[in-house]
Every structure is written in C-alpha cells, then in structure tokens.
C-alpha cells in the first residue's frame, strides 16, 4: 500500500520547492539588454528620419520624435545628446561600396549599379535618408557629404582623367539617385514595374560610360 503524504501541521513552515531552472546568467542578461538597446536605437532613428523628412530640421522636435518612437524624450537625449547629433546619426550611412579597381574594367558599371540596387532593396534606411535629403537643406548637405566622401574615391580609382573625377561621380549619382527617387520615393509606376535585371541593363552601360569612357 503506497505511503500517504503527511499533511503539514498548520503554522509549521514548509521547505521551499527546489527549482530545476538555472539562475539567469550575466551573459544572457547583458545580451537581452543589448538587444533592447539596439531596438530602441533603431526605433529612434526610424522616427527621426520620418520626422525630419516631414517637418524639416528646424521644425522637428525631440518630443515629437520620441512620441513617434513611443519612448520618453529623455531616452532620445540619452542616446544622442541633442537634436544636431540625432540628425547627424539619422542621415549617416555607410554605402559599403565595392573596390571597383579590382574588377575587370568592362564590369565596373554593372557592379556599381547592382550594388546600389541591393542597398535600396534590402532596407528602407536609404530611402528614408533620401526623403530627408530632398525635403530640407540640412538633409541635402548631409547626403552630398555621403556621396562626396564615399562615391568620389570610387570614381577616382577608375576614371581616366583625374580632373574629371568630380563631374563623373556627380553624373553617376544622377543615375543612381534618380532611379532611387523615381522607384522608391516617388514610386512612379513605370519605374516600380521595372524588373531588377531590366533596371540593371538600362543603367549599367550609362554608369560604365560615365566612369571609364574617354572624354567627349
């Protein structure tokens, strides 16, 4: 006959149940905190880009950005300090441009356009930054800086005439930004309807010519 459990006497303390769960390790706590921090930072930047694009730099406020991100304004200040620093972070981007000098010369235009199509399509970040750039002066200046510091060296590495590097880089930007504006910001139906390979086939030869062709 099985033993019966002896009921506890009222008022007698019982031993606490032993949990089989292991205590939370410091590494798991820090990992969770880091993920929350990254998510908060991403929410702030996304809200900032949308607000700067809609209101411009002067009218956008930390309070409005915090409301859009659904956090307290003090959190925005904690991450970025002030509106100027937040704006700089919101419109900064690494284009991760490939080293075109290592490619066969006739593949340069194809590689550059393909890279930009990947950038535009893998994330909405560049599209948001472009919206900021076309709606206010401060955003345009930041976008110009991104292309001056990142696209200009790429053009310099392959351009046959060093004196024409700025002009050729600007012409490349006109194609790359023009496609992005019509396809991802304005969403002109014919531009949106282009298959990736079609867009690549149209733009790559033009960008190739801008970068490597002899002077007209």
Structure description:
By secondary structure, this protein is an all-alpha fold. The chain folds into two domains: 35-90, Homeodomain-like (Arc Repressor Mutant, subunit A), CATH 1.10.10.60; 100-212, no CATH class. Helices cover 69% and strands 0% of the residues. The protein is built from ten helices and no strands. The chain has helices spanning 26-59, 62-69, 73-80, 83-90, 108-122, 125-135, 137-158, 165-185, 189-193, 196-212.
Summarize the structure.
This protein has 216 residues and is mainly alpha-helical. It has helices at 26-59, 62-69, 73-80, 83-90, 108-122, 125-135, 137-158, 165-185, 189-193, 196-212. It is built from ten helices and no strands.
Helix content: 55-70%
Number of domains: 2
What Rg do the Cα atoms give?
27 Å
DSSP strand count: 0
Q: How many helices?
A: 10
Q: State which percent range the strand residues make up.
A: under 5%
**Secondary-structure element order, as H and E?**
HHHHHHHHHH
Q: What structural class is derived from the secondary structure elements?
A: mainly alpha
Largest sheet: none
Shape: elongated
How far do the termini sit from each other?
Answer: 104 Å
Mean of all residue-level pLDDT scores: 85
Q: Unreliable segments (pLDDT under 50, ≥5 consecutive)?
A: 1-22
